[in-house]
């Protein structure tokens, strides 16, 4: 079994440089980093007193919340599709 080639890029998120490594395309990884950066900046604008650690945790909480909602929607759609096929 061959291992997928990993891409390595440097990205800037909220003024810090991070190295991302993954099998996704560099375009996808840059989009992920950009989305995290945008979300952190939006949260900071609404809550100027937050420090970076709390800002990062709130960003993660928002991302996981969005993921869980999408997962739930997908499961409902899959159930509907299964009913239509039956």
Automatic annotation (TrEMBL):
Annotated GO biological process: cell division
Pfam families attached to this UniProt entry: ZapA
Alphabetic keyword roster: Cell cycle, Cell division, Cytoplasm, Septation
InterPro entries noted in UniProt: Bac_CellDiv_Activator, Cell_div_ZapA-like, Cell_div_ZapA-like_sf
UniProt subcellular location: Cytoplasm
General function of this protein: Activator of cell division through the inhibition of FtsZ GTPase activity, therefore promoting FtsZ assembly into bundles of protofilaments necessary for the formation of the division Z ring. It is recruited early at mid-cell but it is not essential for cell division.
Subunit-structure text: Homodimer. Interacts with FtsZ.
The protein's name: Cell division protein ZapA
Organism of this sequence: Viridibacillus soli
